[in-house]
């Protein structure tokens, strides 16, 4: 995953999380979703064209489409009257794929840190499925907070380590990311119990999501 693309994954997840907790209007969030979604569809296409059938390169680019399509889907939902159920069930597909890619990061790629990051994304997209696909509106606020936390744990922070050439991957760091993700999930549900002080997002506005 490109370090630049990962940085903007952090940005779009942060904005979408703020949308879910009612701080950013859906139409305003749609703009960044279109920008990042387009980037994560165009760039992988260029990579695949230039890959010369190199399987590791193709594997690295394939997952980007899952998130690129998600962000474009979110943007479309925010500027139209289309319901979010389709995005919810697509999110279940993304979550399942993220579990597989996460497992392959551990076994095939040998990158336990990104293995944990992909599994964290799987949890986040599963929450999107519950929220949009099954209509669990009570999860809106908790999902929004988890999206905000995940934006930085899996996007912004690792992106800056990659951009500065200081990224490392080992079992100890993978455990640290796991603890951070678990704490973020617990904190998100704790904050979710407090209600939505800035106005509850509808399932239509709940189309927030991640990564590159």
Q: How would you characterize this protein structure?
A:
This protein has 212 residues and is mainly alpha-helical. It has one domain: AmiS/UreI transporter (Serine Threonine Protein Phosphatase 5, Tetratricopeptide repeat, Alpha Horseshoe), CATH 1.25.40.600. The chain contains seven helices and no strands. It has helices at 3-20, 26-49, 55-79, 85-109, 112-133, 140-163, 171-192. Helix 4 (85-109) runs antiparallel to helix 5 and helix 5 (112-133) runs antiparallel to helix 6. The relative contact order is 0.20. Mean pLDDT is 90; it is low at 197-212.
Shape: globular
Number of helices: 7
Q: What number is the mean pLDDT?
A: 90
**Could you name the ranges where pLDDT drops below 50 across 5 or more consecutive residues?**
197-212
How much of the sequence lies in strands comes to under 5%
| Alpha-carbon Rg, integer | 16 Å
Number of strands: 0
Q: Helix content range of the residues, please?
A: over 70%
Query: Which architecture would the CATH scheme give at its second level?
Result: Alpha Horseshoe
Give the structural class: mainly alpha
Instruction: Outline the biggest β-sheet.
Output: none
CATH topology: Serine Threonine Protein Phosphatase 5, Tetratricopeptide repeat
Name the CATH class.
Mainly Alpha
At the fourth level of CATH, the homologous superfamily is AmiS/UreI transporter
**How many domains, as an integer?**
1
Order of helices and strands: HHHHHHH
End-to-end CA span: 7 Å
